[in-house]
Amino acid sequence: MRNERVPDRNIAMELVRVTEAAAVAAAKWMGRGDKIGADQAAVDAMRMMLDTVDMDGVIVIGEGEKDEAPMLFNGERVGNGHGPQVDVAVDPLEGTRLTAQGRPGAVSVIACAPRGTLYDPHEMFYMEKIAVGPQARGAIDLSAPVDWNIRQVARAKGIPVEEVTVIILDRDRNTDIADQVRAAGARIKFITDGDAPAAVSAGIPSAGVDMMLGIGGSPEGVVAACALKCLEGDFQGRLWPRNDDDRRLAEERGIDLTKVLRIEDLVKGDDVFFAATGVTGGDLLQGVEYTAGGAVSESLVMRSRSGTIRRIRTEHHWRKLQGLDHTVN
């Protein structure tokens, strides 16, 4: 008898329908200046479509307390209750501000792995991160100086340090890291939001990024680790306290804030599923384009065990979707 506790098929091919639904719904809000409306549209569409996926899922990385989410919160059960038991990480709209302002780089993402294998950062919302692609796998160390890591990546990729491009989230908390990158002689590509797709782009040669550095969201770090495991890249993170309240919380929960979390700590095992759909066009994915009778989307779909990486262009036809505003098939 088939063991339904363990995934035996590529459920990422079902999960992409979930991110497509969220992306198409969110893209309608592009440039309208309402990031809450855009996020709610994505959440509603993702939650509706998740009910159709053949899995018994529990959200480990969700909208959470940080976003005061009414749904897709940590601990929520998703899927139709049949099929494999999995942990689920979601970000219906990574880049709410990007969407609201009509800027590039917003995506909808979801990742799944067997039950009990995804790391839960609890209420520690920020993480210091480093991400690289397959060529530099095993060559990085978050506890080492920035310039050492840059030299390691340059050596692994066979390029001069001056040709290494580091993508960094443009925040005051990353100013010192950016200064160290400049001092090492590498190039910087700043982004205003969306450090999960930024980390993923470090694992995709066509994105033109060699590594990602900086402090960003810890939930996004777990999602990025799932994607990089599929890409055979590397990722390390260290929880970063914003203030004394975070330090007290870490002490209460027994969290070691000096510990470097390696990719195997963030997502255990080797059966990880990842899907992302572009909302507004960027380096990683094309955004949703509306047509007279529907929309066109581009998605990235991956599974770590098989090593399959797919780019899917989907045409959505409103007439055949039976008027369901937030659902695509």
Q: In short, what is this structure?
A:
With 329 residues, the chain is α+β, with helices and mostly antiparallel strands. It contains 9 helices and 14 strands.
Task: Name some characteristics of this structure.
329 residues, alpha+beta, six-stranded mixed beta sheet, globular
What does this structure look like?
The chain is α+β, with helices and mostly antiparallel strands and 329 residues long. Helix content is 28%, strand content 26%. It has nine helices and 14 strands. The chain has helices at 12-27, 35-50, 96-100, 146-157, 175-184, 195-201, 218-230, 244-253, 263-266; strands at 56-61, 77-78, 85-94, 107-114, 126-132, 165-169, 187-191, 211-217, 234-239, 261-262, 273-278, 289-291, 294-303, 309-317. Strands 1, 2, 3, 4, 11, 12, 13 and 14 form an eight-stranded mixed beta sheet that branches. Strands 7-6-8-5-9-10 form a six-stranded mixed beta sheet, sandwiched between helices. Strand 6, helix 5 and strand 7 (187-191) form a beta-alpha-beta unit. Helix 1 packs antiparallel against helix 2 (35-50) and helix 6 (195-201) runs parallel beside helix 7 (218-230). It starts with 11 loop residues before the first helix and ends in a 12-residue tail after the last strand. Mean pLDDT is 91; it is low at 323-328.
